[in-house]
Amino acid sequence: MGLLDILLGRTKAVAPDLDQLFALPSAAVTLEAAAGFTPTGQGAVCFATVEGAAFEQTHREVQALLDADSDRTGPPVRLTQDDYGYSWLVSARSPDELPLLVNDLHAVNTSMEANGFGPQLLCSLVSFEKRGQDTERALALVYLYKRGTFYPLCTLPGRHRRDNALELQTAALLENDLRVEKDKARWFPLWDAPGL
Fold first, then answer.
1. What pLDDT does residue 174 have?
2. N or C, which end of the chain is more exposed by having fewer CB within 10 Å?
3. InterPro entries annotated for this entry (predicted)?
4. Which helix H or strand E contains 63, and what residues bound it?
């Protein structure tokens, strides 16, 4: 970054660091011990859909790679599209197989990046839940690919409602485990995201 960039207030973009995903199992231990949230075994990678044979081939390779896992206890990896036209590759594992789920998400991101589709990657998420006598809460830890950071997404029952207070508490709780996104304007709601 040069002097002109500093004077004009431009900042250098943060490079994606997919190895940050491997911090999720440690964060899950903290999340369970301090807040009672446990993994659901669901995770997903979101990317902008691109037309073309090369993209379709990469898609098939990634899906075949993950579906070939002989240890998979959940349903096969599935591809869905949301109401906004984004694609989601959803992986399901047993709730106690969070490290394997993280490996799945890392493999998807790495394969797409290696095949030149890094710019289409948007985010990855891992979902958690908290069950009580009368309540059920959903939470996702979302990894922003282009920022290399995480943020918590806490949804409430009903249509398009968030628990902002719990999101802030969760972010503070996980600061030592994950690189938490400081710009809260980037804590996107991801309504109806698969795997959440």
1. 97
2. N
3. PspAB-like (IPR054383)
4. helix 53-67
* Tokens standing for residue 189: 């709601």
Asked whether residue 87 is assigned to any structural domain, the reply reads: yes
- Measured at the CA of 117, the angle between CA 99 and CA 190, to 5 degrees, comes to 60
Please determine, for residue 70, whether its predicted confidence score (pLDDT) is greater than 60.
Answer: no
* Residue 78 covered by a domain: yes
**For residue 100, what is the enclosing H or E element?**
helix 98-114
Identify whether the C-beta of residue 93 lies closer than 8 Å to the C-beta of residue 72: yes
Domain count, the chain: 1
Tell me: the pLDDT tens digits for 106-116?
988 998 898 88
Residue 68 falls within a domain, yes or no? yes
What is the enclosing helix (H) or strand (E) of 81?
Answer: strand 78-81
Q: Is residue 37 part of a domain?
A: yes
Which pTM was predicted? 0.86
Q: Which domain holds residue 105?
A: 23-186
Pairing of strands 78-81, 149-155: unpaired
> Up-side HSE of residue 182: CA atoms within 13 Å toward CB?
0
What does DSSP assign to residue 159?
S
3-state SS, residue 154: strand
